[in-house]
Write a structure and sequence with these properties.
By secondary structure, the protein is an alpha/beta fold. The chain has a six-stranded parallel beta sheet, sandwiched between helices. Strands 15-16-17-19-18 form a five-stranded mixed beta barrel. The structure holds S-adenosyl-L-homocysteine, iron/sulfur cluster and FE3-S4 cluster. The site of iron/sulfur cluster (SF4) has 10 residues, from helix 6.
């Protein structure tokens, strides 16, 4: 049979697999269940929604634990401890699988793009049934079907791809907000980072496809989207008709019914004046910018291949704050990059003090096989790194509490996300600045934008009361 497109082919396979799943359910006298475990970043979280969408469409029913008929691990390899967690879980699954006839275990995501990982799993974790990578998640149904038909393990890893498969089902984790991929891959090759090797080259989706997907999500109850890419500021440069990220934002802004737009991640080297302008004047683009610093030392930044200096970063921060005085700035910082001296580290501390981030993710440098930094001399000894990490974390937390406190007593618009897990008479929502607020309310408010007076700051979050 000839298919017009890859997505059409996959939808047909989903239908075939559905019949197989129905037959297995009838045999068991209950529906087949699935569970997706996600590691890593927002990209992986979004990919997992696509995996869940395909599984739901084939008739699998969501199970809250790994005691399910189909369990899939969507892995991350950005730092070594992400890998270790996956091996730990897989070890435990061996026993669970023995108790569970017919259970299938699948692995996908960034870790699987590394040949030595796949080799290790095939050798030492023989209870894994299906392995695939980051470029072919749209094939999930086909891979399950192959496994069921042949009864043999299935391994399908692509090195790279220029394919973007549109229009497959997805199952959103939250009814009112979702991530939307605007681009895949990364071309930056920061010297510490494995992502370009496991996610392939940068590919932007066509703006019409993005807008169409968001319109459909809004029609389905979504009020907030997070536009996702490793470096959203270089969006659209390689499209046949180039479109800038700022222009894309303006198109998305026009979508009726959409209330909030967030995006992640912004590389400082490509952040344009045009984008700052759009952020300053938009009603929907949130007043939050995640702007990874990585290091405050220009020498280290250059060794990291980040293409900006400490001064460039500070200039950018001033420009953004002048245009958007209410903005919240968050960041990522790596401690212990090869060659980092106490002096370099102090420069990072200085930048954190000067900027006063609303929050910062701090990471201990992790040596990733195959990246240029892994081969650099002067790897910093573990105890030195841990000491620096602790000092940085203290400062980050102190500064974050100071920065967050600036809204105390004001009234802010809050998107309600969930009933508070500790106190059922309260709900939890998020300000445009991405700050959490807890206040009295009930289920009916979920997904709504309400006005809340922020009565008390508790370090990283507020308590308040609804005013309208
Ligand atoms: N594309 C994003 C980052 C994606 S990875 C950007 O450029 O900002 C998320 C964060 O993980 C990075 O910002 C970096 O701080 C951290 N990270 C990446 N590789 C790392 C490594 N080898 N060791 C420690 N942290 C790392
Ligand atoms: Fe990694 Fe740098 Fe690409 Fe971010 S921009 S994903 S840190 S290589
Ligand atoms: Fe991890 Fe892959 Fe994201 S390595 S951080 S899941 S792109």
């Amino acid at each position: 049979m000839e298919y017009i497109s890859e997505s059409e082919k996959q939808l047909a396979i989903i239908d075939q697999l559905r019949r197989r799943v129905e037959a297995l359910s009838a045999e068991k006298g209950r529906p087949l269940t699935y569970h997706v475990v996600t590691f890593g970043c927002q990209m992986n979280a979004r990919d997992s929604e696509k995996l869940a969408g395909i599984l739901e469409r084939t008739g699998y029913v969501y199970a809250p634990t790994e005691d399910a008929d189909f369990v899939i691990y969507n892995t991350c390899t950005v730092r070594e401890n992400a890998n270790l967690r996956v091996y730990g879980r897989l070890g435990q699954m061996k026993k669970i699988k023995q108790r569970h006839p017919g259970m299938l275990i699948a692995l996908c995501g960034c870790m699987m793009q590394e040949a030595q990982v796949v080799e290790k799993i095939r050798r030492s974790y023989r209870h894994v049934d299906i392995i695939f990578g980051t470029h072919n998640i749209f094939k999930l149904a086909e891979l399950i079907q192959t496994r069921m038909v042949t009864g043999k393990p299935v391994v399908d890893i692509w090195k790279d791809t220029d394919q973007i498969v549109e229009d497959l089902p997805t199952e959103r984790k939250y009814p009112f907000k979702t991530g939307i991929n605007i681009m895949f891959g990364c071309n930056n090759f920061c010297t510490y980072c494995i992502v370009p090797y496991v996610r392939g080259r940068e590919r932007s989706r066509a703006p019409e496809d993005i807008v169409r997907e968001i319109e459909a999500a809004v029609a389905d109850g979504v009020s907030e989207v997070m536009l996702l890419g490793q470096n959203v500021n270089s969006y659209g440069k390689n499209l046949e008709e180039p479109v800038s990220f700022a222009q894309l934002l303006q198109r998305v802004e026009k979508i009726e019914g959409l209330k909030r737009i967030r995006f992640m991640t912004s590389h400082p080297k490509d952040l344009s004046d045009e984008l700052i302008e759009v952020m300053a004047h938009s009603d929907k683009v949130c007043q939050h910018l995640h702007l990874p610093l990585q290091s405050g030392s220009s020498k280290i930044l250059s060794k990291m291949n980040r293409h900006y200096s400490r001064e460039d970063y500070m200039t950018l921060v001033k420009k953004i704050r002048t245009a958007c005085p209410q903005i919240s700035l968050t960041t990522d910082i790596i401690v212990g990059f090869p060659g980092e001296t106490e002096e370099d580290f102090k420069e990072t501390m200085d930048v954190v003090s000067e900027v006063g981030f609303d929050s910062a993710f701090t990471f201990i440098y992790s040596r990733r096989t195959g990246t240029p930094a892994a081969a650099m001399e002067d790897q910093v000894p573990g105890e030195v790194v841990h000491d620096r990490f602790d000092r940085l974390l203290d400062l980050v937390q102190k500064k974050a509490a100071e920065a967050t406190g600036r809204f105390e007593g004001t009234e802010q618009e809050v998107l309600v996300e969930e009933v508070n897990s500790h106190d059922a008479s309260m709900v939890t929502g998020r300000m445009s600045q991405n700050i959490l607020v807890h206040f009295p309310g009930d289920q009916s408010l979920i997904g709504r934008l309400v006005r809340v007076r922020l009565t008390k700051c508790h370090g990283f979050y507020y308590t308040g009361e609804i005013t309208g």
